[in-house]
Write the structure tokens for this entry.
Amino acid sequence: MPKLDYLVEELVTGNRILAREGVVDSFGHISVRHPDNPQRYLLSRSRAPDCIEKDDIMEFMLDGTPVDPRGRAPYLERFIHGALYEAQPEVMSVVHHHSESVIPFGVVANQRIKPIFHMGASIGHEVPVWDSHDHFGDTALLVENMEMGRDLAKLMGAGRTALMRGHGATVTGRNIRHAVYISVYLEVNARLQQRAMDMGEVKFLTPGEVDKVASRTGSYGITRAWENWCRRAGRPFQPEQA
Amino acid sequence: MPKLDYLVEELVTGNRILAREGVVDSFGHISVRHPDNPQRYLLSRSRAPDCIEKDDIMEFMLDGTPVDPRGRAPYLERFIHGALYEAQPEVMSVVHHHSESVIPFGVVANQRIKPIFHMGASIGHEVPVWDSHDHFGDTALLVENMEMGRDLAKLMGAGRTALMRGHGATVTGRNIRHAVYISVYLEVNARLQQRAMDMGEVKFLTPGEVDKVASRTGSYGITRAWENWCRRAGRPFQPEQA
Amino acid sequence: MPKLDYLVEELVTGNRILAREGVVDSFGHISVRHPDNPQRYLLSRSRAPDCIEKDDIMEFMLDGTPVDPRGRAPYLERFIHGALYEAQPEVMSVVHHHSESVIPFGVVANQRIKPIFHMGASIGHEVPVWDSHDHFGDTALLVENMEMGRDLAKLMGAGRTALMRGHGATVTGRNIRHAVYISVYLEVNARLQQRAMDMGEVKFLTPGEVDKVASRTGSYGITRAWENWCRRAGRPFQPEQA
Amino acid sequence: MPKLDYLVEELVTGNRILAREGVVDSFGHISVRHPDNPQRYLLSRSRAPDCIEKDDIMEFMLDGTPVDPRGRAPYLERFIHGALYEAQPEVMSVVHHHSESVIPFGVVANQRIKPIFHMGASIGHEVPVWDSHDHFGDTALLVENMEMGRDLAKLMGAGRTALMRGHGATVTGRNIRHAVYISVYLEVNARLQQRAMDMGEVKFLTPGEVDKVASRTGSYGITRAWENWCRRAGRPFQPEQA
């Protein structure tokens, strides 16, 4: 299968999985960098993730301009995706979501999400919080232009995750499966971390453990989850293409 | 499709969505103002929201008198709806429910639901609590006459939401989708707010942010959710009529 | 339909509803007093509630002796049922369960479940806790003879609900639907009460409100829930027989 | 049916039940000792539990060497299983999982899971916590060789359960159903225990109660749950073989 067709299928599947696994509800989105042109990315038209079909997938320039819209309305917040592809050549997929357990960590000072179990190590040593109010004052909280997107991308740097105060989170990955995997376990880690914090002082993973687990998190483990998530989401499980 | 037929379909769908999304269980109800006569409203007979069919939809005068009951028993609390349509000409739809996360905020002093993320901005700056005991003493807590309904409507004023102590909540909207949308995110916001409060001092949305988000919450975003909710509830997604 | 056949159908449905609504898992049971002989009751053989069929329903004497076992093994804890029918002639149905939100209230001193919203009023003014250890010392915590059953029944008196420390809860009703209804809302009330207690001082329903709501909780409201629960459990909704 | 065929069926069913009941997600595994050769055990190839079919079941020597791999990739953490079968001749089945409610108890000092209700008694008097860091320093937290497996097995001794700090839990049983049963109620007990601890001082089961319940937990009760879990998981319920 041509790489582009493969990625469109993966992208539809990624959307459905994020919905089925409770990372997104009717809002949130996932994109993938274009396989032939790194200055472009693929992202659905403005639609709830669990409703998305192949024909909904649009192509965008990094600045958010749709290449061939054919009347399809884009997400207002597509600039999150373009700004991250622009800033980090290594990033191949981006997820933006409002996953429930992460929201509280974005609105309480001095409480940061950190890995409390090995499945959470891929989120990084500590999840930073981006507050749109710092540089943009009172807004509708949406990342609706490249200036805001670049501000978020600057805070993230090469990190995989960031929270957005009063809004949600953004996650990057080496490919679609990686970004979905981190998104799912960011939610689980946040949920378990809050429960652990309720009981007392938490022993987080050591920095060395985080690095060792993250360096081991590859296709072997992610594929095991992906097959299961495909089945749960009612989507075909296609062989991974490098 | 004639506006009345359209609204009856929407009302059945709204009931099913509220059930599927966990806002109502076997109790709670949603109404819409009559499209041709603002002195009347449409509301199901006394039945659980997830069981409601088109033939269950009855027509009421604002004082709660059924127009053509044909043996159908009405909800005891229909006065909530009539009193709000009477007091607020702009209100086109009303939801009354016992959504789980909002109940605790109605029974604890000095804790008010306030928007902690952009999806919650439509609930208003702060959700007031109406206590039937203040003016009516010991009752069965039900709003079972116009006097109680008007007391609640007075507290709500032009606001979109109110809690009812030891009972539930009431929400108003510009149309059915808007009232359902606010009801769903009132529940989510309350759930996340309690979790955030457990962790420390909460940074709520600023007043300016609440206003900016609320003014942007229109058909563009709500339709995206509505399509998804229709699919989840097994209901047809019909085009919106203004 | 003969009353006995009607009750057997209702009993199967009651079991399935309790499972579907999360009151029981693989354990727990519901019985009904025999319609023709108040010295007997009907209860399933030892089987998970969601698996129960009509042929599983057995007849017992109040002391727990099966009338016509035909090889069917009874629940070890059937004495809960017999002791309550023996002590309270008005009781027509009994539920015993391990509903999750009530367990914590049974193992923490000085925290009692009390109605915090109108749907919880049927549980009574305060739910007492029976501790088998008080009179029986170290046991397997099961009510496995009439002596223990009578001790529990004595604590309950004419009340509708009791917790059992380290074990679960028992509920009585005027009929099957009533006992199921109270069981469902005992769980919901406990869940919401704990969340409210986490936030501050709780304003419970006043004693007068509890009495007014409870006196109003009749077939009108319960039937509305029952129809919905039948649908969710995939069971026929049969007309109520007095 | 030959014992080996019976056990392979049970093992597939055990995997599906653990997934359906929320003990495992895409990770975690269950094994059974070989019926004819106590120096071997049966365990799936590396696959998510809810996807596992009969052909996925592999045979291993206690040191983790696959007997007839036929290209099937094994779980990295199979050494947990071999080390426990090696150390405890009585153990016939082992479950390793990352059940959500137990994780927090593994990362907070001085909070141990203990039975708070009779269904939890099979977990033992107190669930110990194994910290891989104590003897192995910074690792990827996985039990990926026999040395680590034996260290865990040593901590567990004849106990049925242990938590693994920042990782998950391991459970042993007299047979597959027993190990699954304990795994399910370890999760429930942890969940309820945390909620009880939130409310005040907890009255746990007495040591005598734990012993009495555990000694009574046999095929009678477990089979009742197993039939129900088979139905929920869409698996045939086969008669138990001793």
In short: Strands of chain A lie at 29-33, 40-44, 57-61, 93-97, 129-130, 161-164, 168-173. The longest strand of chain A covers residues 168-173. Chain A is about 40% helix and 15% strand.
